[in-house]
């Protein structure tokens, strides 16, 4: 497989090599691909968690009577009222 890089990508790889952290361009690309894989896995897990929370919220809302916005806000404000 051959890959064409933009000049910015080549410069990024060169900067990484000059930092001394990597010895070859392949090491830079390997690290980048590993991090991309980790990021995609984390994103998929986040989407799964959010979907579960949405499902739980929908289920809860189906089990409880609706609450209008004013009542909701007043309830929150009541919790923060100073007590004397």
Short synopsis of the structure:
The protein is mostly helical and 84 residues long. It has one domain (7-79). The protein is built from 3 helices and no strands.
Q: How helix-rich are the residues, as a percent range?
A: over 70%
Average pLDDT score? 93
How many structurally independent domains? 1
- N-end to C-end Cα span: 74 Å
How do the helices and strands follow one another from N- to C-terminus?
Answer: HHH
The radius of gyration is 25 Å
Question: Percent of residues in beta strands?
Answer: under 5%
The coarse overall form would be elongated
Please tally the β strands and state the result: 0
User: Quick one: biggest sheet?
Assistant: none
Q: With helices defined by DSSP (H or I, 4 residues minimum), what is the helix count?
A: 3
Low-confidence stretches: none
SS content category: mainly alpha
Question: What would you note in describing this structure?
Answer:
By secondary structure, the chain is mainly alpha-helical. The chain contains 3 helices and no strands. It has helices spanning 7-18, 25-63, 69-79. The chain is elongated. 1% of the residues are buried.
Helix and strand layout, with pairings?
Elements lengths: L6 H12 L6 H39 L5 H11 L5
InterPro entries: ParD (IPR022789), ParD_sf (IPR038296)
């Amino acid at each position: 497989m051959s890959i064409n890089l933009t000049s910015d990508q080549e410069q990024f790889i060169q900067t990484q090599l000059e930092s001394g952290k990597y010895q070859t361009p392949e090491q830079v690309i390997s690290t980048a691909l590993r991090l991309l894989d980790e990021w995609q896995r984390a994103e998929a897990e986040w989407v799964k968690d959010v979907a579960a929370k949405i499902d739980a919220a929908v289920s809860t809302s189906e089990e409880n009577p609706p609450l209008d916005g004013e009542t909701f806000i007043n309830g929150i404000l009541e919790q923060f009222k100073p007590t004397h």
